[in-house]
Specification:
Layout (H helix, E strand, L loop, with lengths): L2 E6 L2 E6 L8 H4 L5 H4 L1 H7 L6 H12 L3 H4 L2 H8 L3 H10 L5 H19 L15 H22 L2 H13 L2 E6 L2 H15 L4 E3 L3 H9 L5 E6 L6 H12 L3 E6 L5 H4 L3 E4 L13 H20 L1 H15 L3
Parallel strand pairs: 3-4, 3-5, 5-6, 6-7
Antiparallel strand pairs: 1-2
Helix pairs in contact: 4-6, 4-7, 6-7, 9-15, 10-15, 11-15, 12-13
């Protein structure tokens, strides 16, 4: 059996090629730590389901995560202009038992980040007008490293394995996203197309809905939206599922409408800066999932994949 060795964030891992196992065990064992190591990303992904009072709590914690360590629940409620009951509801909406678990989760996460990046970075702070170009680059790079780490750590490898198997056996693969998510869909399309898979990148909603409606047997439809609330993409998956296709959501919001329209959901975790023209950190997290998915699919037919990549490289890079 062939084994693909690769290095990710300083850790060596292996994928068994030619088998159905795609989990990287170094991360799979850590899935149970999701709420501890990804609490800030979980807050970001949950904003849309917060009440206005809870959104004020989220905003304060997002901008000053250490405030939870320094203040009691009453003091935090006062700082956020809300009530203790709203802070408790905020914690429970995140799946936490209460404020004590929120403090423990943030303390663990901030300690990990300080050890990895140093205390000068202030990851909770937004990119400021006074930041130098080097400081801005350091903040973005660190957030992108964290996004990849938290995304791969929190992946449900059972879901990933089922999606890999479905895409590998699919007669037709439909890919659709709007805006920055379209670029992520385009990346997966490029990779699958180069190894001879029957993948279609859909350019606009009407084309996507038509393709979804006319899905033949054996179709897999993948919808890309970090917010999970993009109406056109949600409808694409709904139409595809009604037509009998297997639907897959790639999103940062596992409780979103897009996830609800999907048979399988792959979750990307990221903390975005407000100073952005489009997805930055979330795009990197989604691309990490795309790469994991592609490696899994490519490994199912290893010799065929290597041959396809060699021949397509030869034709695009003539000597």
């Amino acid at each position: 059996m062939k084994v693909l060795n690769f290095c990710f964030n300083g850790r060596r891992s292996q994928l068994q090629l030619g088998s159905r196992r795609v989990a990287a065990p170094d991360y799979g064992r850590r899935a149970e730590e999701e709420l501890i190591l990804g609490i800030q990303s979980t807050i970001e992904a949950s904003v849309d389901k917060f009440t206005p009072a809870m959104q004020r709590v989220a905003t304060v914690i997002r901008d000053q995560p250490r405030i939870v360590l320094d203040q009691t629940i009453s003091e935090l409620a006062e700082s956020c202009g809300t009530s203790v009951a709203s802070v408790v509801r905020f914690c429970r909406t995140l799946g936490l038992s209460g404020y004590a678990q929120l403090r423990m989760s943030l303390a663990t996460e901030l300690g990990k980040e300080a050890a990895q990046f140093g205390t000068d970075l202030m990851l909770g702070a937004e990119i400021a007008q006074s930041d130098t170009l080097q400081e801005m680059a350091s903040k973005v790079a660190s957030l992108e490293i964290l996004a990849i780490d938290e995304t791969v750590s929190g992946l449900d490898y059972g879901v990933l394995e089922r999606v890999v198997a479905a895409v590998d056996q699919a007669e037709r693969i439909l890919l659709f996203g709007i805006g920055a998510s379209q670029f992520v869909a385009q990346d997966l399309h490029h990779k699958l197309f180069r190894i001879g898979r029957n993948a279609f990148l859909l350019a606009d909603p009407h084309e996507a809905w038509t393709a979804a409606l006319l899905s033949p047997a054996g179709t897999v439809a993948l919808g890309f939206s970090h917010s999970g609330a993009t109406a056109d993409t949600v409808r694409f998956l709904e139409i595809a599922r009604d037509a009998g296709a297997l639907t897959v959501a790639l999103t940062g919001a596992p409780d979103s409408p897009l996830a609800g329209a999907a048979d399988e959901c792959l979750v990307a975790r990221a903390r975005e800066s407000r100073l952005r023209a489009g997805a930055m950190v979330s795009r990197i997290a989604q691309l990490a999932i795309v790469d994991c998915l592609f490696l899994g699919v490519a490994s199912q037919r290893y010799e065929q994949t290597v041959d396809a990549l060699k021949r397509t490289r030869d034709v695009t890079h003539p000597k």
